[in-house]
Specification:
By secondary structure, the chain is of the alpha+beta class. It has one domain: Pseudouridine synthase (2-Layer Sandwich). The protein is built from five helices and 14 strands. The protein has helices spanning 20-27, 58-61, 93-104, 183-190, 240-248; strands spanning 30-33, 37-42, 74-75, 84-90, 109-116, 125-129, 132-137, 140-145, 157-165, 170-176, 206-207, 210-211, 217-225, 231-235. Strands 1, 2, 3, 4, 5, 6, 9, 10, 13 and 14 form a ten-stranded mixed sheet that branches. The chain has a two-stranded antiparallel ribbon with strand order 7-8. A hairpin with an 8-residue loop joins strand 3 (74-75) and strand 4. The longest helix is centred in the middle third of the chain and has 12 residues, at 93-104. It is globular, with a radius of gyration of 19 Å.
Length: 251
């Protein structure tokens, strides 16, 4: 009788040893939980997955929620390291399959908030429908706008609406209809309204004399089909630093 082959573990399937501080930290990020799902409000500066150095990523920290002998929750999507906001995980394999299928089918609706400079875009609301391509520079990856007939072009569309505006900046609500890397950041830069704090794509590091400590982009809400039926919407509060800048700028 031939020995039964054991499936190879997926990368990252081995439990990660977390400190008590890390466990408390990640548990404090939870904004919604049920039998199928776990949603967190990811802070800026924390990599979703595949980070560098000795700091654990959010994906690794999800071992804080694993039951003995069981796998950790699975990330359904990612956010850029410097973007804050709602990030969704599945607690079971069937839930992960269900959510992954519907995300690929574009049945997830994402809403972001961003502070842009030097003011509101013209028109005040609309859609940016411009293809993007990936550009590798050493160990860094960028996204660039490109012509639709470029061999590496990927379709990308972002809807936007001006929520409020001031002399130096504006607060926008954004809804990406596709999920390209850095899509919102590059699309806004392409219309001359880069996100404040986005040094990679030309964002201002100071606005009206006020320092901008990081990328001012927040994933505020996520709406999606729930594995048990119906549609679920989860919202995450704007972080204190971003809310403070919004108030200081009169937005």
């Amino acid at each position: 009788m031939r020995p039964r082959l054991q499936p190879k573990p997926r990368p990252g399937d081995n439990p990660v040893l977390l400190s008590a501080e890390e466990i408390a930290f990640v548990r404090g990020l939870v904004i919604y939980e049920d039998a199928q799902l776990l949603a967190l409000n990811k802070p800026s500066g924390l990599s979703s997955q595949g980070g560098r150095g000795q700091v654990h990523t959010l994906d690794e920290m999800l071992w804080a929620f694993a039951k003995p002998g069981k796998a950790r929750p699975r990330l359904i999507h990612r956010l850029d390291r410097d973007t804050s906001g709602v990030i969704l995980t599945a607690k079971t394999k069937p839930a992960a399959g269900f959510l992954g299928k519907h995300m690929m089918g574009r049945r997830f609706s994402k809403t972001y908030r961003a502070i842009v400079t030097p003011g509101a875009p013209e028109p005040a609301q609309g859609a940016i429908d411009v293809p993007l391509r990936r550009d590798e520079q050493g160990r860094e990856a960028y996204m660039r706008v490109c012509a639709a007939d470029h061999p590496d072009a990927e379709a990308a569309r972002t809807r936007y609406r001006t929520v409020s505006k001031g002399a130096a900046a504006a607060l926008l609500e954004l809804a990406p209809e596709t999920g390209r890397m850095h899509q919102i950041r590059v699309h806004l830069a392409s219309i001359g309204r880069p996100i404040a704090g986005d040094a990679r794509y030309g964002g201002a590091l100071a606005v009206a004399g006020l320092p901008v400590p990081r990328l001012m982009l927040h994933a505020q809400a996520l709406s999606f089909p729930h594995p048990e039926g119906g549609t679920k919407q989860i919202e995450a509060e704007v972080p204190v630093d971003m809310a403070g800048l919004i108030a200081a700028l009169g937005l």
